[in-house]
Write a structure and sequence with these properties.
The structure is a homodimer.
Chain A lengths: L4 E8 L1 H4 L7 H12 L1 E9 L3 H12 L4 E5 L10 H9 L3 E3 L1 H13 L6 H5 L2 E3 L3 E3 L8 E4 L2 E4 L3 H11 L10 E7 L3 H14 L4 E9 L2 E10 L2 H18 L4
Parallel strand pairs in A: 1-2, 1-3, 3-8
Antiparallel strand pairs in A: 4-5, 6-7, 7-8, 9-11, 10-11
Chain lengths: ~250, ~250
């Protein structure tokens, strides 16, 4: 599988860790990465702390093809993502001329003052390139393999849509789901045997619990359609063999 | 703030990273930790990979007062959390006699076979102590400062309820919210000044976007009720000063 493209995500913000805000971006990024054939391998959530953010950026950007961050790029004192990413790359964080022009024109059109706080949103690490923000103008940015985006879900999603066409994508991981009316204790043994017999697949077992009883969703994944179908058929046959005849 | 108690969370499972399952445990743990005065400082989500899990366990357990994990403790081949945590601690992972007895009795009562897969759920690192599971019997476990719990939300929540009375808790972080009808660009400057003037508080600004316009939730947090009220009053006065008279 030499054409695997990997990604990590860094969610930045005290409000997620305190529970005040429930993250909605992880699930969205996970869905999109799966859809385009990039393996999301790790997610971290860290507080609004420059050292913590920079350490996480450096740990993740070196390890995966892409890193996507959300949060901390607004105009207030607790928005320190641009500074932290600059620190991680060892470059200065400075007002970007193009971003200043973009934001200046935006506020002039709306007859709003271009405050110092708003000017903060034009700061980015030297060498960064913009990620367009069709909703509220203030751009995200990319530096190296790190894509820095907003935390507000509507803006994050719009920025991510602009990033997607620039990404190298891998061969898509195909998947097939087999519904299993039994709990994992029933199928765990035979399922392990099927996994061993089908090494080019990843077989996942997801326990579900409802109204006092367990059932299981069995998901087979593979980059090969043939391997996928062979393993799926084996899983289905196993489930059938355990089902009492009607 | 010498009485700060910190925590990290490790969410284990391919299904979260692929987007198939949307995590519901992070928000729950965050809410509970905030309620009892423990600072949740970091969350990581990793795949079902023994090395990745062990590395994350070791990185996090050394850094924070407590580590809580969810996922990967069921009976199937992809449930490798117990092995990975044992590896992190450098101890063997073995069938625990008490857990075997508990599970054996449970399946005997229900006249169900105690399969090899089900016996897997009794495996834990040597020296671990049980975390009771009132829903489906198979225990979670604690070793050192690491609490290993189920990923199914109902079971995770029940296990966590059993863990809470055993935790050392910190002085609760108090909070007060001020609604602000303006976007961050308007209040960013003065808010930064208030933060500087109230160093014993953490002032967060959370942008909200709805129907084409921005508003902001301003949240002041502090372990001191007096410091909290002083900063809250300053934030409210600032918002009032920007609001046009009726």
């Amino acid at each position: 599988m030499t054409d695997t493209v990997s990604a990590a995500m860094l969610v930045i913000g005290d409000e997620i860790l305190s529970g005040r805000t429930k993250d909605r971006n992880i699930g969205h990024l996970a869905d999109i990465m799966t859809a385009i054939g990039i393996d999301l391998k790790e997610v971290r959530i860290v507080a609004d702390d420059e050292g913590d953010i920079a350490d996480a950026v450096n740990a993740l950007r070196g390890h995966y093809t892409y890193l996507f961050t959300t949060g901390g790029i607004g105009p207030t004192h607790d928005d320190i993502t641009a500074d932290s990413v600059a620190k991680a790359f060892g470059v200065p964080c400075e007002h970007d001329a193009a971003a200043l022009a973009l934001l200046g024109a935006h506020y002039a059109r709306r007859e709003m003052e271009f405050t110092e706080a708003r000017r903060r949103m034009a700061r980015m690490p030297r060498g960064a390139v913009h990620i367009d923000n069709p909703i509220s103008v203030a751009p995200g940015f990319r530096i190296g393999n790190v894509h820095v985006m907003a935390g507000v879900p509507a803006i994050f999603q719009a920025m991510l849509d602009n990033v997607l066409p620039t990404l190298k994508t891998g061969q898509k991981l195909l998947s097939a789901t087999v519904h299993c009316p039994f709990g994992e204790g029933v199928i765990g043994g035979p399922l392990g045997g099927i996994q061993k017999a089908h090494p080019n697949t990843i077989i996942g077992s997801y326990p579900k619990y409802r109204d006092g009883s367990f059932w299981t969703e069995l998901v087979v994944r593979s980059r090969s359609a043939e391997a996928l179908e062979a393993a799926r058929a084996a899983v289905e046959a196993m489930v059938q063999s355990l089902t009492p005849a009607a």
